[in-house]
Design goal:
Oligomer: single chain
Largest sheet: none
Number of helices: 7
Length: about 160
């Protein structure tokens, strides 16, 4: 149960809500005007312009390259080594540290690709079941029982 709001609290909430609504509507109008001006300026449809703004231009920038425009990273670096070194030397120490931090963060977040080796998986499974069979046989002989039931709780994700 929540306490009831006073009339001044209700008025403050209402005023805050109306202010937010006005700001959102103003931003929408400004966005719509910007879309219209960009589409007229560049001769594109408003729909295309809205999508480019929404997607950040990713679809436009990530278009398929022809075979001649593709580079391997090592080839690109060797071909543009002087330009890259000059551009890197112009960066400030803070920018260089920022790029290094982003690189370290990206490497830490990147998931390693694990390749399944069917032969090793089969061997591991076989060895695990053989070890479990030995344990169960040992338990049966120590306890003097012929067998027992095993209940398992959970699933693959657990």
């Amino acid at each position: 149960i929540r306490p009831k709001l006073t009339t001044s609290q209700k008025a403050a909430r209402r005023e805050k809500f109306e202010s937010l609504t006005e700001d959102v509507n103003g931003a929408r109008d400004a966005y719509h005007q910007e879309v219209q001006s960009l589409s007229k300026k560049h001769g594109r449809s408003e729909r295309w312009t809205r999508r480019q703004l929404y997607l950040g231009g990713k679809t436009f920038l990530r278009r398929r390259l022809s075979k001649g425009d593709r580079w391997k990273l090592t080839e690109f670096v060797s071909a543009h080594k002087e330009t890259l070194q000059q551009d890197y030397s112009r960066l400030t120490i803070a920018q260089k540290n920022g790029y290094a931090a982003k690189l370290i963060q990206t490497r830490a977040e990147r998931q390693r690709v694990v390749r399944d080796n069917p032969k090793s998986i089969h061997r591991d499974t076989t060895m695990s079941f053989a070890a479990m069979d030995q344990e169960w046989t040992g338990l049966c002989s120590r306890l003097g029982i012929e067998g027992f039931y095993v209940a398992v709780r959970g699933g693959i994700e657990d």
